[in-house]
Amino acid sequence: MSNRILPAAALSLVILAACGKPMDPSGKEENFVHASMVGEPAPTGPDRPLASDLAVEPVSMLVMFNRLKTPEALQDALNKKPGQFSHLDIDHDSNPDPLTVAARETTQGHAFEIRARPNSGEFVVATMIFDPEWSFLGFYNGALDGGASTFARPLAALPLPGAPPIAAIAPAAPAVPTPETAVPAVPTTVAGQTPAPASAGGVQAVPAGSGAAPGLAAAP
Length: 220
Description:
23% of the residues are buried. A hairpin with a 6-residue loop joins β3 (110-116) and β4 (123-130). The longest helix has 13 residues, at 5-17. The protein has a domain at 5-156. The model is unreliable at 1-29 and 164-172 (pLDDT under 50). Strands 1, 2, 3, 4, 5 and 6 form a six-stranded antiparallel beta sheet that branches. It has a three-stranded antiparallel beta sheet with strand order 7-8-9, with no helix packed on it. Helix content is 15%, strand content 17%. The protein has helices spanning 5-17, 56-65, 71-80, and strands at 32-34, 99-104, 110-116, 123-130, 136-140, 155-156, 199-200, 203-204, 215-216. It is elongated and about 115 Å long.
C-alpha cells in the first residue's frame, strides 16, 4: 500500500468515526463498533469477541483501496498469508483458522460477514458495514442482527443463500456370497473314437453297443 493511500485511509476513518452507529432492525447497537483508527477496548476472558483477533481496519482498507469488493476476492486476499489479518484459533491447534467471506443484505449499503473455519465447523467473526460508496462505517461483533460471537459462545455460520445441500453418502450394501454350483462335465465325442466311460454314484456307466457289461466302478 502506497504512502499516499495510508494518510487518505486514516483521514477517511477518522471522519467516519464521528458518524452515528447504524442499528439493526431491532434497534440493538451494543455489538456495533465505530470505524476508528484507535478502536475500542474489548472484554477479556470468555466474553472476548472473536472479532478482537481480526484486524478489522486493515481488512476494511483492502476493500476500500484495493477494490476487493466481492466476497471471493476478499477471501482470497485474507487467506493468502495465514495469520496476516487474523490470529483466530478456535480449535486450539496452533494454526490460524482459515477465513471465509459472505455478502449480506443491508439497507446501509454493503455488508461482508467474515467467518472462521476451524476443523470443528464455521463460525461468524464479524460483519463489516460499508456505505453505498464503499466507505467503511464499522462492524458488528458477530452477526448483522446484533448477535455477539464470543470465544465462549461462537455463532455458527448459516449456509449461504442458494448453496446446494450436502448429500449424505449411503453405505454400500455388503456383498451376499453365493454358493458355487458344480457344473458337470459333458463328455465330448470325437469322430471315429469311442467315448470314455463316465462314472456316476460309483456305478460304471457303459455306452450302448460297446459290448462291455455294466458293473461297479473300481476303487481309485
